[in-house]
Design goal:
Blueprint (H helix, E strand, L loop, with lengths): L6 E3 L5 E3 L1 E4 L9 H13 L3 E3 L7 H13 L9 E6 L6 H15 L4 E6 L27 H13 L3 E7 L3 H8 L10 E5 L7 H9 L3 E5 L22 H10 L3 H11 L3 E4 L4 H7 L9 H8 L26
Parallel strand pairs: 3-4, 3-10, 4-5, 5-6, 6-7, 7-8, 8-9, 9-10
Antiparallel strand pairs: 1-2
Helix pairs in contact: 1-2, 2-3, 3-4, 7-8
């Protein structure tokens, strides 16, 4: 495989591998599984590891990366590691300490990419999801442009090689892009994106601004009942995806991943099953013809599995906009 075709250049001149390994797992999954799954993924050829402070498994994921460096499988510079600034740390003075906390958990000197996880600020403190006595989410008011300036300082300090955002709509992106004195553009916007929510308008917008779109829940999410409405259709059971998969002698999951790569989207594949992790690496072994791409485009029905309804009352809630 040609490694050049497996990465995209970012606006800051660095490169992001187009296929990433997602490490989020529901609470009931033991943290030790993140360690084993990440070690296996690196062994299988994944070089882009996507994690976040709020997943509460950076310690294990960091351990996996360090053990694969120690055994000679990879060097630190071969790994592209993404972490995320959680919503309770959006105040400018909390940004660097939050990143330093992640680095301490990981026992790494820097992250390759640090992104604002969600544009909705929540009350600062130890609680990831701070609620009042009635169980209502406690919000905070923060100017995202000030948060971004603190992110820029983390890049200048060498703690993060690249900086970006996640779950931003085009208006929120524009706010940062048009900020007076902008030093660094967000290199990416990581959003939910799959054949049922293909984000074509947001993708076009991001391409026009040289921002890479990174797709999470690319296989239709893990359907954690805490977050996802269980009545929504299961993406990988879609008959059209199944038919295209059969035609190419691949799994529906591989078809969904390949679809993103051919649209110029960086895609995250999340599985703690070794067989699936290995299989996901086969996404580079085939190509979808234009008619299949067009057919998959036609599956879009704006189904958002992760709508973060708890934040809907906040003025920065991103999903009230069309894109």
């Amino acid at each position: 495989m040609d490694p050049k075709h497996q990465r995209r250049e970012l606006t800051d001149g660095r490169f992001i591998p187009v296929l990433g390994f997602g490490t989020f797992a529901p609470e009931e999954v033991p943290k030790s599984e993140a360690l084993e799954a990440t070690k296996f993924a690196i062994g299988a050829g994944f070089r882009h590891i996507d994690c976040a402070y709020v997943y509460q498994n950076e310690e294990q994921v960091g351990q996996a990366i360090r053990s694969k460096i120690a055994d000679g499988t990879v060097k630190r510079e071969d790994i592209f590691y993404t972490s995320k600034l959680w919503a309770t740390f959006l105040r400018p003075e909390l940004v660097r300490p939050a990143l330093e906390k992640s680095l301490k958990n990981l026992q790494l000197d820097y992250v390759d990419l640090y992104i604002i996880h969600f544009p909705v600020a929540m009350k600062p403190g130890e609680e990831a999801y701070p609620k009042d006595e009635n169980g209502k989410m406690m919000f905070d008011t923060v100017d995202l442009c000030r948060t971004w300036e603190a992110m820029e300082k983390c890049k200048d300090a060498g703690l993060a090689k690249s900086i970006g955002v996640s779950n931003f709509n085009h208006k929120q992106l524009e706010k940062i892009l048009n900020k007076p004195g902008l030093k660094y553009k967000p290199v990416c916007n990581q959003v939910e994106c799959h054949p049922y929510l293909n984000q074509s308008k947001l993708l076009d917008f991001c391409k026009s601004k040289d921002i890479v779109l990174v797709a999470y829940s690319a296989l239709g999410s893990q359907r954690d009942p805490k977050w996802v409405d269980q009545s929504l259709p299961v993406l990988l059971d879609d008959p059209l995806l199944g038919a295209i998969a059969k035609k190419h002698k691949r799994s529906p999951a591989l078809i969904a991943l390949r679809y993103q790569l051919q649209r110029g989207v960086v895609v995250l594949a999340k599985s703690y099953k070794e067989k699936e992790t290995k299989e996901n690496m086969q996404v580079f072994d085939f190509e979808l013809p234009p008619e299949d791409m067009k057919a998959i485009d036609g599956l879009n029905r704006n189904i958002r599995y992760c709508d973060f309804q708890f934040a809907a009352g906040h003025p920065e809630y991103p999903f009230s906009e069309e894109y």
